[in-house]
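Ticket 4471: requesting a sanity check on a complex prediction with SLL. Repro inputs:
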Amino acid sequence: VYGSVATPFRPENRPATLPPDHTHKWTVMVKGARDGDVTHFIKKVQFKLHETYANPVRTIESPPFEVSETGWGEFEIQIKIYFIPEANEKPCSLFPFLTLHPYGPDAEEQRTNFRPVFSFTYDELIFSEPTEAMFNILTSKGSVVLPVGKGGEMDPFSREVEQQEIERLNIKLLEVQGLLAERREGIEEKEKKIKALKEERAKKLAEKAEQEAAAA
Ligand code: SLL
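Returned structure tokens:
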């Protein structure tokens, strides 16, 4: 699970030492689903922040794999996960967008009440041809499956949530297919009209040529 949580400062508890344009504090992180241990296969995590930050490349060698900062703007964070040497794997890159501002139907309420903004993604790392050492390390920890039931705000992902997402996607897919079919029909009709007009025009031209030939 990776992503960010950002909280706007309330005017009354802004740290006095903060640069005046910093509006939010935020944390970006990489962690196991439901806080499951990932240290048996992750060696370190590198976070590359926007270049407006001092020392934008932050390398975290032990959990929690996270970086906390304050700032004023949103940007894409470049994350690189380095695996244990036994894995013999290249680092894995992720590009979450640091989200500071709420959006959606509750945005206004969230903004007025200085609520934290969560932006997290669940993903699965697949090692398709692991070294034997890596295979043993991964399997000795038991198999990793998406949990059942509700998680927290930083980690809401579960099999139910995945199923709901699949259903939402299927409904939208059907909608798109319907729209496509409609469009296709429209195009076919127009093509028929074009064909008819072209035939009519060819006929008229032929008639005109005939009349001209007769007149000559
Ligand atoms: C934007 N393209 O214009 C983005 C850049 C950069 C945010 C956002 C730095 C804080 C500091 C900070 O918040 N950078 O001064 O250290 O919105």
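Notes from triage: The chain has three helices and eight strands. Leaving this open until the requester confirms.
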